Amino acid sequence: MNQQAKSCYLKSNDKALKTVYLPHKKSIIVGRSPETNITDTQCSRHQVQLYADYEEYKVFIQQIGLRSCGFNGFKTSKDVKFIANHDDCLEMLYGKHAYQIEFNPPPVKRFLSKKRSRDSEMLNENDENSDKIVKIESDKDEKTREEEPQAEVKCKKNDQGILKYIKRSKTTSDEFKNEDNMIDLDNDQDMWESKESGALLICTTQGVESRSKIAAYDMDGTLIKTKSGLVFPKDYDDWQLIYPDVPKKLRKLHNDGYKIVVFTNQKSIGSGKVNPKSFKNKARNIVQKIGVPMQIFIATGSDIYRKPAIGMWQQLEKVKNDSISIDKDSSFYVGDAAGRPKDWAPRRKKDHSSVDRLLALNLGLKFYTPEEHFLGHKQAQFKLPTFNPKNLSNGEICSGSNITSSNQEIILMVGCPGSGKSHFARNYLNHYECVNRDTLGSWQKCITAMERHLNEKGSVVIDNTNPDCASRQRYIEVAKKYNIPVRCFVMSTSTNHAKHNNKFRELTDPSHVKVNDLVIDSYVKNYQAPSLDEGFTEIVNINFIPKFQKEEDRELYEMYLLEK
């Protein structure tokens, strides 16, 4: 008995969009409505007609609104029909409101192979009257159109009048007949993997070989650029090779024994702004354009995989290179996020960040910008972050003062989030009773806990940020009531060091509440330095000296972790 789906849905990574149920063999119309939660007035209320077939695992799609939809990265035309399969991408408007088609249970691979074979037979019908060429809309200027062959879509009708699309390059007639020049949207020869619930996607294209020499590249701004001239692509087809010689350069490296690898940050996938299926099609088309087997690592979040952290390289080195040791001295990395200032070349903007250069520094790899690598330019000027985690001193925690006292006392910590207050209190004041607002929830509860410990004759450390006089005065007044001296310990950690600590904590302790950099910046902006006039017996500056339980934590801490 053939497998049959029990249900079919349009699902979106965008939490603002509602899931849409597609019934079996019943036509429905979807668009701007409470059922989708789409309020975009550019989207028609009657935008697209859908017809799901649970037996064939197909959804027939027809744009009926005035504005184009998107199907797997391509722009649709009104009244032209498509066949969609499980996991294909439909955008209600081209580049916006992305959904994935999901059959439950999903089709098994054997069923997909048979279905694709039937689709292939359908496309090979020799019916001259059924051929139709649909131009993919492009924003290229006339010069670019002359230099680069225009993409086309070859499609044939089956007996139901449904068009099945295959993208081809417009080449000579002999090349056009060669199936190697086709990009089949259902091609599953490339292997895609998902790690840690989609935090890392890995594409291994056909023909990739594990090798000791690695030629690694960023993607956007390094191998490709937008056709529109915008900083960020306006849609999935808004790309072109950054230089015409990219394929030749990469083919030579491949022939010289290098494995071609791409490391790219794509947080928009993890946030739901970009559909994974559409990005996969874009990546496939880029690989086809370059014409070299490669392995692509895609970081979709803000975790250890996101550059400049080295998680993607670790996956390559430990898992995806078949135990072949990588020769770092012979390997290199190319990226456009190189920390170059404004006017590093005439009329050039400054780089948006330095993550590519920092990744190379973290790994000990030779680094080149695209201009240096592809065009042979001399090294441009650049700026590294002022905070270098490798330069942290192992000097004294504080100078000229004792950290603890044999007499009962109160120590009031002062420092922004990530400055190391809790680390210091845990490691150097562990016999003091710790009062912490993050644990107790309010300053009133902190006061109550503080008084309880004082009544029990214990010394107390107030492990809060205490940024201003008003927040500190609450505890000083209680100390006066009990006639207990108060010392103020001020963390001397810089803002960038605190942000580094915060990022390290985020990478190594997922249970810790994430602190946005804006919180740290706001603290610094509103900070009031403590003075003895507030009632302190002593003000002590504390240097943050990290301690590590594992050597791998030390190695990570001493790497660049911030993106700018």
From TrEMBL:
PNK FHA domain: residues covered: 8-78
Location relative to the cell: Nucleus
GO molecular function, a single term: polynucleotide 3'-phosphatase activity
GO (cellular component) term, any one: nucleus
Residue segments, region Disordered: 116-151
Annotated keywords: DNA damage, DNA repair, Hydrolase, Nucleus
Pfam families: AAA_33 (PF13671), FHA_2 (PF17913), PNK3P (PF08645)
Gene Ontology BP term (one): DNA repair
Biased composition range(s): Basic and acidic residues: 129-151
Protein name, per record: PNK FHA domain-containing protein
Source organism of this protein record: Frieseomelitta varia
Lineage summary: Eukaryota, Metazoa, Ecdysozoa, Arthropoda, Hexapoda
